[in-house]
Design a protein that fits this description.
This protein has four helices and 17 strands. It is α+β, with helices and mostly antiparallel strands. It has two domains: 122 residues, Diaminopimelate Epimerase, Chain A, domain 1, CATH 3.10.310; 132 residues, Diaminopimelate Epimerase, Chain A, domain 1 (Roll).
């Protein structure tokens, strides 16, 4: 079966986009196709036909086929794809979250509902010691680790020196976060007040160039820890900045979140996929 796909980057987070037409495939089929369609991207976005009210449903799948979580950069890439056809504010429905999208100074700006709970502190036991971190759920669960906390594991140095894949894998599968696991981010605040961020994403199972929900989670965590004030610039591995802002005077009284950053089309292709089980 051949599919027309578009490749997109949201601040260094890459996606394969498929636009469904009259012939619509069940979500279970897309789940099986995701590993084939994400051989070099961080996720699959399936754009369904708009609802009568104009809202566009978007299905998101990780490269391993897992689904059901919100994806901030994916939502921005889906919006950029649709705005390329007709630039205007649009509304998306992704993982049960209604998201407003509009053009912004840095690219695409999203307005999202506030998280149900503020970030909270937790300690977990690892082979090399006990680690203090923060957890936050902004449509996808995250564990946030300030760089200096890694000293309890005997890890010192700059953010660039953190073994993100090794530590990320340990925490992502830690019993404290069972059964679903978490995304894992390590961060520090630089002299300009910007957050420097590196993220290991579950479902991709490696460090990615950027993660939109990680940017939201780390900005809220750093605000709770009185390390930053909004708006917050978050600089991921890709070095393409994300701007995070919110409405509300305290972490417990938030009314809305905002995520803004670059989103661009990388190219299009026609790919051959199979519903047969791969060896």
């Amino acid at each position: 079966m051949q599919l027309r796909v578009t490749y997109s980057s949201g601040a260094g987070n890459t996606f394969t986009i498929v636009r469904e037409g009259r012939r619509r495939l069940p979500a279970a089929v897309w789940q099986r196709l995701a590993p084939q369609l994400c051989r070099w991207t961080d996720g699959l976005l399936v754009l369904e036909p708009a609802n009568p009210d104009g809202t566009v449903p978007v299905l998101f799948f990780n490269p391993d086929g897992s689904t059901g979580m919100f994806c901030g950069n994916g939502a921005r890439c889906a919006a950029a794809f649709l705005m390329g056809e007709q630039p205007r504010p649009i509304t998306l429905l992704l993982a049960g979250v209604v998201v407003g999208a509009m053009p912004g100074v840095l690219g695409i700006r999203l307005q999202l509902p506030a998280p149900k709970e503020p970030p909270s502190e937790r300690e977990v036991e690892l082979p090399n010691g006990r680690l203090r971190l923060w957890v936050a759920d902004v449509g996808a669960p995250h564990a946030l680790v300030p760089l200096h906390e890694l000293s309890t594991l005997g890890i010192r140095g700059t953010l660039d020196q953190v073994p993100v894949d090794q530590l990320g894998r340990q925490l992502r599968k830690h019993p404290a976060f069972a059964p679903g696991g978490v995304n894992v981010s390590f961060y520090t605040v630089d002299q300009s007040g910007q957050l420097q961020l590196r993220t290991y994403e579950r479902g991709v199972e490696r460090e990615t160039g950027s993660c939109g929900t990680a940017a939201l989670a780390v900005a809220l965590t750093a605000w709770l820890r009185q390390e930053v004030r909004p708006p917050v610039t978050v600089v991921p591995l890709s070095r393409s900045p994300l701007l995070v802002d919110w409405d509300g005077e305290s972490p417990e009284q938030l009314r809305a979140l905002y995520l803004e950053g670059a989103a661009e089309v990388l190219g299009t292709d026609t790919v051959e996929v199979s519903l047969e089980e791969e060896e």
